Amino acid sequence: MVKYGLDYTRCRWILPLLLGIGVIFGIIALAGWGWLESQTLPYVLQASLWQICRRPDQGGEWNCESLMGYAWGRAAAATYLVGFLLLVICFALAIIAFAIDTLRFNFIRGIGGLLFVAAVFSIMGLVIYPVKFSSEVEMSGINMFSWAYGFGWTTAIMEICLGFFFCCLPNYEDQILGNVKPTYFYSSP
């Protein structure tokens, strides 16, 4: 990507594409039912970011309760949702930044900083949820944090990594714009 510059049409959209994938993973985490599940038979517990469902035995009806009745449930949902909204804003800003013919490198660095803020909020929600859930909600059997919770962590890790890319990209401004003369390592005898 640095060799051809960001003007190279196939490389220009890699970072916004990765942000878009992060947005999709965030949607899966917000909507997914697999934040916490029973690991062994009988499968009697299933939870999302928004509610918890229990059933008395293997064939019984699921009884669901909202986690928004708990202060920690509202805090976990709010902080993760703020991180997700900041990620969506960064995605929109990245599309705008890379659609302009002349890149504004300070604008790109600002997107990186905003991604770090989004990562902080996401991680706060992802830490509040298991700590308070396991201490305040009565659970039976062996339970595990599952796939949707993993998508939440994947989104947070992508926010951190892409934040580094967006912040470091302006350091290579001359290479990207093609303003550096090539150096040759051949010496004549």
UniProtKB/TrEMBL annotation:
It is a multi-pass membrane protein. Keywords: Apoptosis, Cell adhesion, Cell junction, Cell membrane, Cytoplasm, Membrane, Transmembrane, Transmembrane helix. Pfam families: PMP22_Claudin. GO terms for cellular component: cytoplasm; desmosome; plasma membrane. GO terms for biological process: apoptotic process; cell-cell adhesion. Its main location: other. It is found in: Cell junction, Desmosome; Cell membrane; Cytoplasm. The chain crosses the membrane at residues 12-36, 77-100, 107-131, 151-172. InterPro entries: P53_induced, PMP22/EMP/MP20/Claudin. Belongs to the TMEM47 family. This is p53 apoptosis effector related to PMP-22. It comes from Urocynchramus pylzowi. The lineage of its organism: Eukaryota, Metazoa, Chordata, Craniata, Vertebrata.
